[in-house]
Amino acid sequence: MALATMHRVNLAGQAPVATLAALCIFTALMTDRFLTPLNLTNILVQSSIMAVIAIGMTFVIVGGGFDLSVGSTAAFAGCVGTGVMLKAGILLGVVAGIIAGAAVGLANGLVVAVLDVNPFITTLGTMVLVRGLVFLITGGAPVGGEVGLPSAFLAFGTERFLGLHYLVWVPLLLLVALSWMMHATPYGRRVYATGGGREAAYLSGVPVRRVIASTYVWCGALAGIAGIMLAARLQSGQPTAGEFYELTAIAAVVLGGASLHGGEGTLYKSVIGVFIMVVLGNSLNLLNVDSYWQRVAVGAVIIAAAAADRLRHRV
Amino acid sequence: MTVEPLLRAEDIAKSFVATRALDGVSLAVLPGEIHALVGENGAGKSTLIRILSGVHRPDRGAIWVAGRLCQFGSPREAIAAGIATIPQELRLVPSLSVAENIALGDLPVRRRFGVLPAIDRGRMRLEARAVLARLDFAPDPDARVGRLSFAERQLVAIGKALRRRCRVLILDEPTGALETREIERLFAVLATMKTAGVAIIYISHRLEEVIAVADRCTVLRDGRVVAVRERGAYDLADLVHAMTGRAGEPAASSAGEAGEVMLEELGIPDGIVLRRGEVLGLAGLLGSGRDRRVRRLFGAAGEAVQLRLKQRIRRLAHPAAAIAEGIGMVPAERALGLIGNQSVRDNILLPGLRGWRLNNAAGDRLVAELMDLLDIRPRRPELKAAALSGGNQQKVIFAKWLALRAGILLLEEPTQGIDVGAKVQIHALIRDFARRRGSVLLSSSDLAELARLCDGVLALRQGRIAGRLDRDGGLEESRLRQAIGG
Known about the structure:
The structure holds 2 protein chains of 2 kinds. By secondary structure, chain A is mostly helical.
């Protein structure tokens, strides 16, 4: 019996990788345009921004929360970052963008952890509120469009380093550093413990409010980094950028095996979840599936992932 | 006795992942009979009740209601067959009215204009009044249930069962939260239902009550029926002997003279004082505020508390501060002591997390040592805590505090709902902890446990300490019961 449970755990743990592999094999067999260098590079670049957001989302979901505001936060950070960049240079611009994102996260975290407001409602509120702020500060126009952002920043959005786009290096480095933090530091263990059982963690001496608030700060700061990356890719700070990113990110995290009940989830598996979403979209495109049907398919995948989460917990 | 039993269960067996909860239990309840079901925690009472009320399916055995063979697939089917259960935690909707709660699940409907179904509120109120009148209870049928006292809500729950024409009524610890006057009223209600021919299964830890009210009594131990006695054919000592299988476990040899004061609760007149090497009991009925008193000492009662710890005054505002002072707590709800979806290892090491880096090798060694010491099975630190049996989970919670080398343990119901073998091990652990000069505050509703383990027992009534009983004066269950007003 012990052997059987071990096998089940292992299989369940490998489900995201297996799904991704199956999807890739299926698409490669159906069309020869999938395994071209250009297409694969495209997938990597498309995944990179979403991967950064999904890493942040994993912090929040593992901590037992939820964040709908990441798309708006990314746009906010992109516009603030490019705005500062025009006046004060690349470095200060990037820092300002990340701080803007972290500030939204801190606001979310304080409302959720200290005022005990439901995270779904809180971040639904900030999602709308922050998007409103973006339009207020930009007047609805792209930032840096005509004037032109610093060329080094624009190069960051298009050029490669050691054969990989700079945009792909960002999630790669973040993934290595933050995975280490989640697994090798007491802080990481506390996040898992808090998400797994808030009251039990509190009674074990974990400062649960601080931990919960911190997960939203991570999520906001990473959404800020994603916003800067997005601005580099779009060559400007776009007030409408990042719409529906929250849904894709949450779907990716759940596809990666994180539990919406908290306490379970791994950063790299969330990134695999992102690849599943991106490859799915890419595959449907290559197979010339109607874009309306693509939406139906993506929605169905999200529900299937959540249902699988429920089924795992019923046993 | 030629009366046909209203409820008959034959040879019921049920196993859960790690434990065999019931092993061939049979039970027959006659119409108009109050049949008591007693046994220690973990003897199988709750499992049997859950099977009778359709929550669990038995692995083996059969149930007849009024001579008809029944197989319940859900609680709904058990209710339809006439079996109503009144659990300790009443399942009423506080925001609905008395009449609505009584009608819930089977609302009286009338057809508006011949087609539209609408709730017949007039009939609903009338029916509520009628069933509650049979219980000699006349609340406003429109009053919200949330505003009633526990005793009144219990009557509403019984009324609901009556309306569904229950033939078998199962009461799980019905007097746990009642005052003496309310208990008398409940007994009067039970007498009425008896004369109406309802078969009543009465589960209680309060053996005196069982002796007073039950026509027959079935004793469970380790998932088997060990005795069935007729009214008047048994006394308290018989029951205890049947339940525990011992004439009375030898009392704990006192750990020697108590040492210096380790913990003193300041700021309130009846502060708790805990000495080195002492096991101090905390006894009190449900609602006497035991939980609150224990949590207060752990800084988990929502207010800061002042304690004198080894001569130094400390202010504890949250559990982290208490843990830093070497205080550990084992909460009554295991879900609060343990994080089910984290590994055994992570659970054990959680209170001791410090600094910026984890020392994995040292952590693994400590966990392996503690799992050996406490005999936590299986010896797989990577297993999720939820996969362990209740007794092993409880040992993991103890291991958390031993890993920290806590000097003071605050225990709430440490052996509730765990099997007898694990209970013995936990008891040994508690004594051993005290013998190694640790201090234990043991809050328990199991008076036999307190009598067996403690050097002294504080009796709690309405949140206040009403007195202290010491081993010198004798710590028999009956004396404890008297002290807490049971």
